[in-house]
Each structure stands twice: as structure tokens, then as C-alpha cells.
């Protein structure tokens, strides 16, 4: 490389280390993209799979397994939990959660009825729940991630049957109900006759964004090499 001045060992070490780190981060993002694609495939397959007996599956299935259940029982009246600041199809609204007492089981299961848009920025009017015994079908999945807790739900301080949440914490909801809940929630199957939108996909970063980040890291590696060459190019 006669067109380059002799670089210092520090410059070489710094450039090599930077390139290796950037390439490794890019490969990690590509691996994450593959994992997310696999997750989305499993989720889609579970949504169209046959139903399973709730009593025959583990209370906490493997993280990558989403059993589709059929349960008979009744909704627990007087308890509606509204997850605020949600979006669907460009609309802002809420996801509505209601506890369900399944026959033959000793705890309630929290059910996500789906998404309702807000009405002029206000809490939407909730459709009435089925009265008496009913049959539900849906995916048994982990609750949505909590993220950063700012202020908390403060469920005990809220009065009335409808309580607003900023995150879903099954322990807090169980404490508000006065008894424990199962560690997962039920996402109801889509129903064209329902006012609730039920377009279930995992709340994860899409694979395309991981690939975009990978491209960014690979670009940084290339830029580091270009800077090294420019700084050590012989001047005429």
C-alpha cells in the first residue's frame, strides 16, 4: 500500500476494533431479524391452529408457544380494565381487558376483548358483555410488556367498574380483584360481528427495522475504513 503513510499501532488497533465491533453489531441485528421472522411465523400458525384443552397445557408454556384455547365460563361483572394510549389502523384508543371465570379452574383468566377507538378523545362506550355462561376461543399469550413505569396504574384509587391502565400488570390487577390471575392473557379470536378490532401481532420490533439497523452498523464499519485511508494517504 505505497499510497499510504505508515500508520501508528494505535490507529491500526482503533480502526480494527471499531470495524469488528460495527460488523458484530450488524450481524447481531441480522440474527434478531431472523428471530422476529420466526416469532411472527409461529404466532400466525398458532392463530389458525386447533384448540387445546386448557387443563392439559403448562400454566406457563414455553415463551415461544402460544396455545389456542377454548374455554367455557362467564365474565366477572363489574371489572373492566382499559389499557390507554393504544393505536390501531391510525386511530388512538384502548384495549379492553375483563377477567373470565373458566369452568373447572380455580383462578380467573384476563381476557383482551380487543381495541376500541376513542370517541373525540374520550373513553369509548363499551359494548355489553355476554350475560351468563359463554364459550371463548383465543390465544394464550404473555401480557404486553410493561416498559418504563411512570406513575403506575393506581388501580385501588380508581372507583367504579372501569379502571384505566398505562400497562398490564397481572399481579396488580389480581390484587385489585382480590384474587390471583393466570400468568398469561387470552387474546380473543377475531369476530366480524364484534365492535372490537382484533388484529393480533406480537408487540416486537419488525424484522425490516432490524435489517435497517444492520445496514447502519455495516455502513459505520465501511466509514471507519474510509476515514483510516483518508487520514493516512500520502500527500503529493
From TrEMBL:
Please indicate if the UniProt record lists Kinase as a keyword. Answer: no
**Annotated membrane topology:** Multi-pass membrane protein
| One Gene Ontology cellular component | plasma membrane
The source's superkingdom equals Bacteria
Residues annotated as signal peptide: none
TM segment ranges: 213-231
| Location(s) in or outside the cell | Cell membrane; Membrane
Query: What Pfam families does this protein map onto?
Result: SURF1
Keyword Kinase on entry: no
Keywords, A to Z?
Answer: Cell membrane, Membrane, Transmembrane, Transmembrane helix
Q: Which family does it belong to?
A: Belongs to the SURF1 family.
PANTHER family assigned: SURFEIT LOCUS PROTEIN (PTHR23427), SURFEIT LOCUS PROTEIN 1 (PTHR23427:SF2)
| Protein name per Swiss-Prot or TrEMBL | SURF1-like protein
Q: Which organism is it from?
A: Luteibacter anthropi
